[in-house]
Amino acid sequence: MTLRQDHPCQPQPSAATLTKSNGHEAGFQNPVVRQPGRPIPAIRLMLVDDHHMVAESLGRLLATAPDLDVVAVANSGEEAIRDATALEPDVVLMDIQLPDRSGFDVASEILRRSNRKIKILFLSGSVVDLHIRLALKMRSGGVVGKNCSVSFLMEAVRKVASGQQAFDPEVESRLESGPDGAKQLGPTSALAELSFRKLEILGHLARGLSVKEIAELLHLSEKAVDSHKYRIMKELDVHDRVELALLAVREGLLQP
């Protein structure tokens, strides 16, 4: 993941490190950097990304803003749920593609467990229509691409913390306002109609995990997973796991 310092959202070659606007290299030892004499930040921010160095570097950059306090960096869905439940940040910046669970399922679990209104802002390397539909479906804070600048991301976090939604220009160009003024994205898709739990199980099935492995990963019974599997295939009108995997890739639920 790379984030630009100059343009709001513009692709650039991958980099091993992120740099601050003054050109100094951002270190990886501690994702939270407090500057002497800085005021207590108003927005408590948590980052979730499975790329350790990128997550820590981004955390250090965001922590340079006087009104942002990066309270945690999680590298998996389970870590994110645990830390968000314990710390209850104001905003969670959530990577959509995580190694153990989808960002949407993790976000749904965080919101279910939280005693306060945590805002979720999704971050994706490749924002497909399904990501936007799911983000809108759960009334999240929005979606931004990983090619956005750090300054744009800071403003997006502030906007989401204030109760608004934030979308990068490329995502914004795909949206339109509905009759009630809410953002929407054209005709829906079959996958977007599934529950977040079914989408999570679908993703694992499409990756080739067995019912037993999925049950252990999600702390469910094998019977429950098998029941979800049957209903998913029936609702999507697919007949085997190969069709399921192809559909998941085509819709953007899985990266090819």
Automatic annotation (TrEMBL):
Protein name in UniProt: DNA-binding response regulator, NarL/FixJ family, contains REC and HTH domains
Annotated GO biological process: phosphorelay signal transduction system; regulation of DNA-templated transcription
Polar residues biased stretches: 12-21
Record-listed 4-aspartylphosphate modification sites: 95
Record organism: Planctomicrobium piriforme
Region listing for Disordered, in residue ranges: 1-31
GO molecular function, one term: DNA binding
Keyword Hydrolase set for record: no
PROSITE patterns listed in its UniProt record: HTH_LUXR_2 (PS50043), RESPONSE_REGULATORY (PS50110)
Domain of life: Bacteria
Domain HTH luxR-type as annotated: residue spans: 187-252
Domain Response regulatory residues, every copy: 44-161
SMART domains, sorted: HTH_LUXR (SM00421), REC (SM00448)
Keyword DNA-binding: yes
Keywords tagged on the record: DNA-binding, Phosphoprotein
Family matches, as InterPro entries: CheY-like_superfamily, NreC/VraR/RcsB-like_REC, Sig_transdc_resp-reg_C-effctor, Sig_transdc_resp-reg_receiver, Tscrpt_reg_LuxR_C, WalR-like
Pfam families named among the record's database cross-references: GerE, Response_reg
